[in-house]
Automatic annotation (TrEMBL):
GO MF terms, alphabetically ordered: hydrolase activity
Name of this chain's protein: Alpha/beta hydrolase
Keywords: Hydrolase
Start and end residues of each AB hydrolase-1 domain: 18-236
Keyword Signal in record: no
Originating species: Cryobacterium algoricola
Source organism superkingdom: Bacteria
Gene3D superfamilies to which the protein is assigned, alphabetical: alpha/beta hydrolase
Length: 254
């Protein structure tokens, strides 16, 4: 699969690097709405192992993926540090990055990250999804459940069908297990944890543990948003990034 570019805004003056980490049913291309709204920013949009241009690679673990992202930051970010934004699976990777490589992160923003893990009926449904992985109708139903705009559905479905089921099984196992890494307390920078107002309550249940481990954590509920709301309301998501990176504030809807 042809990859979406890693680097954007290379000529942007005086811009600290922002790294955008995608979710587990998309790839780096899903950040195009943010990239086009931030032409004056230096942005890195890596594909995580097993996704997009790296769909032939194996997903090994959240920790190994965090180490992979750390190398990208060291090699491509300005001054070797970056603001990190992670959505869903990307948010879980960002948490491991905070724990394992805190010196590389200027600030962190995570959205839709179920750090407490997935249990009970929700875990059963996760497992059930693997039986439907190669069905186009399943991916179309996912697009509707996520509230994706019509012009994003075909790309979402096509990419989903290209994700290897064995990689998806390993990702689900990591996500289901949950848990905050022991060394997370070493991160001293700003953290914003976000949940969409219409996504699973599993996400906001992670907030108290984050705030216990990292007292500097701020939380925000994005009103009316589903899980993949970077596409659902690209303008609001982008305003959130800018407000957090520049002023450590969250946006007023509207």
């Amino acid at each position: 699969m042809t990859g979406y570019p890693l680097e954007h805004g290379a000529a942007a003056p005086d811009s600290e690097t922002i790294v955008l980490l995608h979710g587990g049913t998309v790839a780096s291309w899903s950040w195009q709405p943010q990239v086009e709204r931030l032409p004056e920013r230096h942005i890195l949009t890596p594909d995580l192992p097993g996704f997009g241009s790296r769909s032939g690679e194996e997903w090994l673990s959240l920790d190994r993926t965090a180490d992979d992202v750390a190398e990208i930051i060291r090699s491509h970010a300005r001054s070797g540090r970056a603001h990190v934004v992670g959505l869903s699976l990307g948010g879980l990777v960002a948490v491991r990055l905070m724990a394992r490589h805190p010196d590389l992160i200027r600030s962190c923003l995570i959205s839709g990250a179920p750090l407490a893990g997935i249990h009970g009926a929700a875990r059963f449904l996760n497992t059930l999804q693997l039986r439907l992985w190669d069905k186009a109708w399943y991916w179309k139903a996912q697009a509707k459940a996520f509230g994706l705009p019509e012009d994003a559905v075909d790309l979402f479905v096509g990419h989903g069908l290209g994700i290897r089921a064995d990689n998806a099984a390993r990702v689900f196992a990591d996500v289901n297990r949950g848990g905050c890494p022991e060394s997370l307390d070493d991160y001293r920078g700003p953290l914003l944890a976000v949940a969409g107002g219409k996504e699973s309550s599993l996400v906001r249940r992670s907030f108290p543990e984050l705030q216990r481990r990292l007292p500097q954590t701020l939380t925000w509920i994005a009103p009316g948003m589903h899980h993949v709301w970077s596409i659902e309301d690209a303008a609001l998501f982008t305003r959130m990034i800018v407000g957090w990176v520049d002023k450590a504030t969250v946006p007023e809807p509207g």
